[in-house]
Amino acid sequence: MGALPANLPHGVMGTGEQRSVNEEWRAMRKCFGTLALLVAWATLGGCGDMEDAPPAGAPAAGTPVEMEAAPSLSLGLAGGEAMQEFFQVRTPFLLPDGRLVVPLGAGGELRVFGPGGEFLGSLGRQGEGPGEFVSLAEAWPRGDTIEAFDSRLARITRFLPDGSLEVARLQTPVGLEGAFPDASSGGWVAAAFAGAGSGTRDLFRLHWFLRDGTHGGEVGRMEGMHRISVPGFTGPHPLSPRAVVRVARGEIYYSGTLSSRIQVVGAPGGEGREIVWEEVGSVSPRAALALVRDAARARPDPSPAATVSEHLLQTGQVLEAVPVLWDFMVDELGFIWVCPYDPSKHGFALGDLGGGGYMTAGTLRGGRWRILSPDGAEVGAVDVPDGLRLAQITRDAVVGVRVDPVLGFESVHVHALRRY
Description:
By secondary structure, the chain is mostly beta strands. The chain has helices at residues 16-32, 37-44, 285-297, 305-315, 343-346, and strands at residues 64-67, 73-75, 93-94, 100-104, 109-113, 119-123, 125-126, 132-133, 136-142, 145-150, 155-159, 165-169, 176-182, 187-194, 201-209, 215-230, 233-236, 243-248, 251-256, 261-265, 273-276, 325-330, 336-340, 367-372, 378-384, 389-393, 397-403, 410-419. It has 5 helices and 28 strands. The strands form 7 sheets. Strands 1, 2, 26, 27 and 28 form a 5-stranded antiparallel sheet that branches. Strands 13-14-15-16-17 form a 5-stranded antiparallel sheet, covered by helices on one side. Strands 3-4-5-6 form a 4-stranded antiparallel sheet, with no helix packed on it. Residues 1-54 have low confidence and may be disordered.
């Protein structure tokens, strides 16, 4: 397989009238190109016999339209190939040149594959020395450089294109759950986790660190999981909210899942902004808890979810609010993908947190994700294949992870993404 497919213009199909409008709009783009479209329309009077103005409400250029259901590249499915045996896959990603990096918590290793899936080599190993990891939590690209975070050592390792290493220890007295690149300063943002007792919620503080690891101050804070302890079970409430943090285009996006408001922070100390999206289809907390119970009863595998949920219903331990989202992602062009909360899929006792971390795990059940423009306007929806945990969304591809429901082994997939 060669390079990943390029973007393809693709209209959002609705009614017959909308389809006609979109076809005209796409024809205009083909005639003049995206950048010159508005000027060409005004000066040349349109393309053929079309209207004199672009259709009102036409999607903005770059709007995600469709994710191909069949992957263009899959790794981890070839039996007998040691380099394609994946355990504890963290946050796989594509580099600008098309190489695919698969970070593995097991072994502290980052495996690098070519655009066609050929194994090219690996970075890192278990240990505490330079280029080694005790607990590899996440990794990401920063241009052509690969960066990886060790949550146990509170350390960032940078694998530079020339083969050299840079290591920065984040100077903090508290444990860190996850780290994210801060493009505005060349440093990082990391989340400090404070665990909660039964009946309370976890707390996260987002801290900014300079390039040398020096602590630069607090960026923001949010609440995480709601913990409970009932007979036979200790852990998150089945309807527990959680915290989500994403980084894209030099900005940090964070939100608790009880809120339809996503906070966005740019340069440390700079003025932030807020993305607000409309909630739809909410249910009462008691009805949501019953949905978790019923979903657990319908599963063939044994799960404590049904017993725990029924106990909470009988004893009246129902939370005051139901999460409105399960996860969100921000793609390379700044569009925000929101996965609405569904109790029958995302109840914590159903085991749906996935293979990612506390704040970076996505749904394992796919479904329809709502698409928001960079300024927060809802512009469409994209269907994500069932069983795929999203890890990265580039200009023209989506990288995700699957877990075999029976054997538990993991595989990494790249799906082509079409935009308007």
